[in-house]
Design brief:
Number of helices: 6
Number of domains: 2
Mean pLDDT: 86
Low-confidence stretches: none
Strand content: under 5%
Radius of gyration: 16 Å
Largest sheet: none
Distance between the termini: 28 Å
């Protein structure tokens, strides 16, 4: 599975778990990104957002959507977490690699623990 497909799947899963529609989330992402209240521009953004969840899109764009979704009140109040590492450009690469390694070890240990319980 391509990275963009994984990100699309994760975005759709989060939207579903939050109990929101793709359109609702797209409008909120638009408000997060832009300060204007141009209804035509918002409509275009919503349509583009929807299309980018169903066609090949740049992973960086989808990561930026995830970053915006993570700022939503519903997301912050949920027990959800973004499972893919987001490169938002302000964490040095060596620190990102270290955090990625720690995360992978924690996920592996968690899976082992869950498997031993079952």
């Amino acid at each position: 599975m391509e990275k963009y497909e994984q990100l699309q799947k994760e975005i759709k899963l989060i939207i579903n778990k939050l109990g929101l529609s793709i359109t609702e989330v797209a409008k909120r992402v638009y408000c997060e990104r832009f300060e204007d209240d141009d209804t035509e521009e918002e409509r275009k953004f919503v349509e583009t957002f929807r299309k980018n969840l169903n066609r090949q899109a740049k992973p960086e764009l989808l990561e930026s959507y995830l970053g915006n979704i993570a700022q939503l009140r519903e997301f912050k109040n949920s027990d959800l977490a973004i499972s893919s590492a987001l490169n938002l450009g302000f964490i040095p690469t060596d620190i990102q690699r270290g955090l990625q390694s720690i995360s992978e070890k924690m996920l592996f240990e968690d899976r082992l623990r869950k498997d031993s319980i079952e």
